[in-house]
Amino acid sequence: MTNLFKKRLGAHLTELLKYLRFVFNDYFVLALVFMIGGLGYYYSNALKQLKTGLWWAPLVIIAVYLMGLQCGRLATMLQDPDYVFLLPREAEMIGYLRRAFNYSALLACLIQLLIWVVLMPFVQVTAGASVPELFGLLATILFLKVTWLNADFARKYHLNHQWLGNRLLFRLVVPVIVLALGVYVNVYVGAGLAAVVMIIGLVSRRSWASRSLDWQTAIADENSRMHSIYQFFNLFTDVPSLNGAIKRRRYFDGLLRLIRLLPKNTYLYLYAHGIVRDSEMSGLFMRLTVIGTLFLIFIKGEALPIILCLLFIYLIGFQMIPFYFHYEDNAFVHIYPITTDHQLQNFQRVLLTMMSIVALIFAIVVIIVNITNPVTVIGVVVCEAVEIGYFVYMYVPRRIRKSEFSR
């Protein structure tokens, strides 16, 4: 089982690195540097305006740590066929899962450490925490995260005591109680309680480690974890492993009826309905729009808001390009007498509409946040218009021709 875990982990890391190359491309890294710099500058200025004793500061601390605890799940790397092929070796799976737990705990604790470092100045300013108290908070969130993962571990088995694997209890209820004690009462009390809960969870492993494995739950949890990772990668590149569901979405029927049913609008009808009803494409569009809007709400300045607008509009447009070939495997679109010129024009109309909607949302947010900065207000409108025009009418045709040649 040791060799199996090493093999699975190696394949898993190789797959992640393959997609991370697309995520951290030159343009995204450059934008990320500007974004981190802008957020850091805004954060440092905001800290100067804060003081000790703010009533809402403890709530922010608890909320941030609680959200941070949700990052990092138990990575088992189990696959659907394991239910059949590994069933005869089920008794040895505890060793495999322990290695998976150790790997997951290491990564999760590194994430908690990063969150603690980012929030540390805020805690010092608003709570007046000393260095030992800050490390007490770090110990608290690390203990809670290990407990969180151990409950996820227990969930993979058929338990006599189902509460040991209760997600709501260990993901939300226990962390809220412990963090509230640590922030409002005493940080060492919270750390001590977190340590006790963690030890109880780890010791209880002896009672369920010899029981039968719940293969369906274990595999379903891993598939759900990988689906979340693929959804993130799908923001930057096409992920073949991600299969979207089709939903009617009747609330868009009124807009879709605006398309005139003419032969030249055949692909316009197909693309508009396809993107709206495809959960991956519409979900991708909504996620990037929401994420970009949230960033723009909290960022002020002359250049950074404009750069972020252009980045997210580009990402949305770029991710829509593969949908041009969505109907290529459908024989009926080749039988119907529609030229590729009409197809490209229809796709450009859909893309122009989607990118214009996003640009309008971003521009409104930037104007509201930076109303006193005319350079940013004018710049965001002009730059968005130039980018959309260049992207839709110059970049997209070249990209599609290149893709057609490679196909």
From TrEMBL:
Q: Which InterPro entries match?
A: EcsB_ABC
Membrane-traversing stretches: 20-43, 55-79, 100-122, 134-151, 187-204, 305-325, 350-371, 377-396
Cellular component GO terms held in the UniProt record: membrane
Q: What Pfam family is a match for this entry? A: EcsB
Which keywords fit this entry according to its UniProt record?
A: Membrane, Transmembrane, Transmembrane helix
Name of the protein in its database record: Bacterial ABC transporter protein EcsB
